């Protein structure tokens, strides 16, 4: 079993999840018709946008509250190749954190339902002057409080 990307404490609420499907496009493959490794972060983005939309913490929701969320860390583990026209499923998993950051994990499934890649991103939180938040901004703290109280699933 692989080591978890994010440690979950016993008192943390369960992760929030969402799935999105898409096809591997011609522009995303190399001359061997295998999806180019640099596109996997874009596949993660598809799931991250879905999670944000589903839970009211999308990029523009946060931006409207004066919160910028650039990527600080991205990691990909490649397991099986994806090929041109494969219909893939990307599962996004949002992990709870008390810090001013967003921890997301991803699992990409090939058309056979096998895991093709896994990975994670960490997004930091900045104000509109590009200053790092040291604690959760109020809007995101309220979201996390509701999540922890079981009101968001």
The ordered string of helix (H) and strand (E) elements is: EHHEEEEH
Task: Please give the share of residues in helix.
Answer: 10-25%
Structural class: alpha+beta
How would a textbook summarize the main sheet? 5 strands, antiparallel
Q: Give the strand order of the largest sheet, numbering strands 1, 2, ... along the chain.
A: 1-3-4-5-2
N/C terminus separation: 26 Å
Number of domains: 1
CATH H level, superfamily name: Hotdog Thioesterase
Q: Looking at CATH, which topology would you report?
A: Thiol Ester Dehydrase, Chain A
Determine Rg (CA atoms, Å). 16 Å
Give the number of helices: 3
Overall residue-averaged pLDDT value: 96
What general form does the structure show?
globular
Quick structural gist:
This protein has 153 residues and is α+β, with helices and mostly antiparallel strands.
Could you characterize the architecture of this molecule?
By secondary structure, the chain is an alpha+beta fold. The chain has one domain (16-146): Roll (Thiol Ester Dehydrase, Chain A), CATH 3.10.129.10. It has helices at 40-55, 59-64, 138-148, and strands at residues 16-23, 71-78, 87-95, 101-109, 115-124. A 5-stranded antiparallel β-sheet has the order 1-3-4-5-2, with helices on one face. Strand 4 (101-109) and strand 5 (115-124) form a beta hairpin. The longest helix is centred in the N-terminal third of the chain and has 16 residues, at 40-55. It is globular. The mean pLDDT is 96.
């Amino acid at each position: 079993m692989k080591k978890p990307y994010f440690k979950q404490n016993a008192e943390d609420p369960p992760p929030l999840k969402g799935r999105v499907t898409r096809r591997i496009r011609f522009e995303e493959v190399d001359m061997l018709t295998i999806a180019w490794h640099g596109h996997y972060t874009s596949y993660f983005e598809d799931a991250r946008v879905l999670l944000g939309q589903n839970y009211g913490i999308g990029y523009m929701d946060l931006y409207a509250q004066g919160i910028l969320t650039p990527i600080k860390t991205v990691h990909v583990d490649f397991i099986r190749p994806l090929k041109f026209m494969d219909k893939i499923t990307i599962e996004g998993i949002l992990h709870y954190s008390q810090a001013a950051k967003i921890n997301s994990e991803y699992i990409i499934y090939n058309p056979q339902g096998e895991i093709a890649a896994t990975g994670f991103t960490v997004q930091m939180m900045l104000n509109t002057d590009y200053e790092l938040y040291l604690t959760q901004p109020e809007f995101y703290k309220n979201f996390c409080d509701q999540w922890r109280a079981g009101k968001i699933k």
